[in-house]
Amino acid sequence: PALDSAFLCSPLGGLMGTQAVLGLLVWALLADTTYHLHAEYGWVMFVSIFFWVATLLLFVMYLLQLPQKFYVVPWPLVLVIFNMVATILYITAFITCSVAVRPTSWRQWDYNRRAAASFFAGLVMLTYGVSTFLSFRAWKGLGSNAATSQVTNHA
């Protein structure tokens, strides 16, 4: 299959690439700390790794133009649901990670990495929020209403 270079320059492609990079930073920064001693970081690790892998899979699928081959699946709706769930779960992960950062940590490098992971989790949360908005607009037809869609469908 041919690579879709237009996808890489699209807002969806750019946001998915950004989400993959920032999501990698979140779980890599946490993985380099003693996160296993704090139960709350387990949730943040789960959310960040799960959505990092899922976003990479979707990115590769769109890059290889596989949604066009599986036209039975309502891909715009799938993207809306995926991005909405990712946004909601990243909100919880961001809050959990931010609350769990303690400035009185006995290991200063753990504090710095956890604070950075919290910052990047917030950025990933925002990018998934923007993706949710854009994918919702694409699913709904970019602002078209029922009257225009009826006219164009039957003309």
Automatic annotation (TrEMBL):
It is found in: Apical cell membrane; Myelin membrane. One of its GO terms (cellular component) is apical plasma membrane. Keywords: Cell membrane, Membrane, Transmembrane, Transmembrane helix. Residues 7-140 form the MARVEL domain. It comes from the Eukaryota. Its main location: membrane. PROSITE patterns: MARVEL (PS51225). The keyword Cell membrane applies. The keyword Transmembrane helix applies. The chain crosses the membrane at residues 12-30, 42-64, 71-95, 115-136. GO terms for biological process: myelination. Pfam families: MARVEL (PF01284). It is a multi-pass membrane protein. InterPro entries: MAL (IPR013295), Marvel (IPR008253), MARVEL-CKLF_proteins (IPR050578). GO terms for molecular function: structural constituent of myelin sheath. Forms oligomers. Belongs to the MAL family. This is Plasmolipin. It comes from Penelope pileata. The lineage of its organism: Eukaryota, Metazoa, Chordata, Craniata, Vertebrata.
